[in-house]
Write a sequence for this structure.
């Protein structure tokens, strides 16, 4: 999860004093989520890494103006998206793989099931349900749950409407709910477990 | 419609996007659909349970590479500054400037060369070992790092006696093999074939790369691999389980000479250097066509008789020749499990009538 407060203070440091350690910190914060995001378009980790590097090079070149960017997260994700689409265009590749990426494997849940009163089996089932979401839906789910983006930010970054984001998350909720719907008979057992 | 709204609101609540009016609306809907309360609770826990990204060692490597780029750019940017000086200085000092510029250029060249050198795969002179599964047999062994390899008939794998001397583990494959790689982020595992290179990212997968074939295939069973076609090295295809990547080898194309007597051979790089598909449907219970060979099943799907004949030659350690050219292009589907050569040929006769002669492992299709 991106720490947006820290990001804001890093932006200032970099803009005002060319602070290289702050820049390195910024890179570390965004590298993995941006890599995944770029990967979801270009489907190659190597290319995605180059795109992240290109975008961060831009950030360094324009560092003096960095504190004028209001929402750096949206800015960076949008840059990554544009770079990725440009790359695909250059490659004359169709966008059939858009959002259909290999690397976007969500980390499986590492929570303590006892503490949550949920069986690890249920958590696994939800993990699996997420993996089986349609690619676009899964990407939106990941951007919100893992990267911590707001609905509005996702809409901006992906150039879709907030209504679409709402609907897609709604679909994800429905699918997750179906995945954990106990079969009749099992239901009581599970309910007991939750309420104990 | 109402249910759709219900799930949208559940999502908004869990994501912390719902305003008071929407929370009110959700509560009203939940009274109507009390079952959703159960989901809301569980999904809410799930949502909060793990939000950490997997951190890559790769991140640090990427960062180092990126900072190198920035430093290079800065050293290039400092060169024009010298140029500006040149307009002021004259005569002898101009030569001095030339020295300074060329010295700077030389340093830059060294930096770039050093960087370039570091990017190149190390050319190692390690003692190599070769393992083969001869025609009519299969082989299975364990590499020095504990990774497992199964070889189909007629396949060769070459690898260094020790993986320890290099930070990268490399093997060279000619033929078809199934790999279960012991993943080690610090020591990436590369498989080099005539048509493509494959990098393991924690994995079990099947590689089919016969030197004589126009295509090569990588089928991922578990984990992740990156496939780089040899003739389109811009591409590095990340693969997910049950996906099959088919790489087309660049075709050598004879270009008709125009006014010149000599033939010019051109490598024609295919426009689409690869395709991605889902691994072929299952044969029987749980056997993928791609890995059926490991279970001693020879599966053929929409293959020409000619292609199948090449595989049967390796499988049964026989030679097959065609007297009837027309049969070569016939497409066949099926599988052999425990069949002898003769049984296999008899089964093929049922699909498409033909006669054959067999003598000392030589089959002639008539």
């Amino acid at each position: 999860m991106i720490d947006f407060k820290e990001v804001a203070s890093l932006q200032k440091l970099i803009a005002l004093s060319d602070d290289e350690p702050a820049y390195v910190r910024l890179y570390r914060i965004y590298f993995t989520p941006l890599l995944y995001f770029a990967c979801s378009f270009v489907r190659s980790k190597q290319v995605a890494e180059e795109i992240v590097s290109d975008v961060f090079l831009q950030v360094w070149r324009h560092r003096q103006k960095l504190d004028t960017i209001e929402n750096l997260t949206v800015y960076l994700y949008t840059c990554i998206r544009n770079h990725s689409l440009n790359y695909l265009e250059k490659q004359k590749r169709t966008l059939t793989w858009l959002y259909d990426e290999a690397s976007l494997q969500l980390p499986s849940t590492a929570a303590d099931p006892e503490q949550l009163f949920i069986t690890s089996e249920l958590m696994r089932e939800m993990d699996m349900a997420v993996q089986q979401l349609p690619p676009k839906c899964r990407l939106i789910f990941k951007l919100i749950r893992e990267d911590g983006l707001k609905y509005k930010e996702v809409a901006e970054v992906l150039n879709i409407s907030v209504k679409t984001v709402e609907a897609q998350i709604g679909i994800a909720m429905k699918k997750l709910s179906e995945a954990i719907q106990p079969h009749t008979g099992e239901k009581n057992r599970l309910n007991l477990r939750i309420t104990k | 419609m109402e249910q759709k709204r219900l799930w949208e609101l559940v999502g908004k609540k869990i994501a912390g996007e719902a305003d008071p009016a929407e929370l009110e609306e959700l509560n009203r809907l939940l009274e109507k659909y009390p079952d959703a309360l159960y989901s809301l609770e569980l999904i809410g826990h799930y949502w909060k349970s793990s939000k950490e990204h997997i951190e890559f060692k790769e991140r640090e490597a990427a960062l180092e590479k990126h900072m190198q780029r920035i430093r290079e750019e800065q050293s290039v940017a400092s060169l024009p500054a010298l140029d500006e000086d040149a307009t002021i200085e004259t005569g002898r000092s101009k030569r001095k400037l030339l020295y300074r510029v060329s010295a700077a250029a030389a340093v830059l060249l060294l930096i770039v060369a050093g960087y370039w050198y570091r990017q190149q795969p190390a050319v190692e002179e390690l003692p190599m070992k070769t393992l083969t599964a001869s025609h009519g047999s299969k082989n299975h062994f364990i590499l020095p790092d504990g990774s497992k390899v199964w070889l189909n008939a007629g396949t060769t794998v070459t690898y260094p006696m020790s993986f320890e001397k290099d930070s990268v583990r490399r093997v060279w494959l000619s033929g078809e093999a199934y790999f279960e790689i012991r993943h080690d982020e610090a020591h990436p595992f590369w498989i080099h074939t005539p048509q493509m290179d494959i990098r393991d990212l924690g994995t079990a997968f099947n590689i089919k790369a016969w030197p004589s074939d126009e295509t090569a295939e990588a089928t991922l069973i578990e984990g992740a691999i990156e496939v780089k076609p040899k003739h389109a090295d811009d591409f590095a295809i990340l693969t997910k389980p049950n996906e099959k990547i088919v790489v087309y080898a660049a075709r050598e194309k004879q270009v008709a000479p125009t006014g010149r007597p000599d033939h010019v051979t051109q490598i024609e790089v295919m426009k689409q250097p690869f395709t991605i598909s889902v691994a072929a449907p299952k044969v029987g219970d749980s056997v993928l066509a791609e890995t059926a060979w490991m279970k001693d099943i020879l599966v053929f799907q929409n293959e020409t008789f000619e292609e199948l004949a090449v595989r049967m030659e390796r499988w049964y350690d026989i030679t097959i020749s065609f007297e009837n050219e027309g049969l070569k292009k016939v497409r066949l589907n099926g599988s052999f499990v425990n069949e002898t050569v003769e049984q296999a040929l008899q089964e093929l006769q049922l699909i498409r009538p033909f006669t054959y002669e067999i003598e000392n492992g030589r089959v002639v299709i008539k």
In short: The first helix of chain A runs from residue 4 to 17. Chain A touches chain B through 57 residues (CB under 8 Å). Residues 113-195 of chain A form a domain with the Arc Repressor Mutant, subunit A fold (CATH 1.10.10.10).
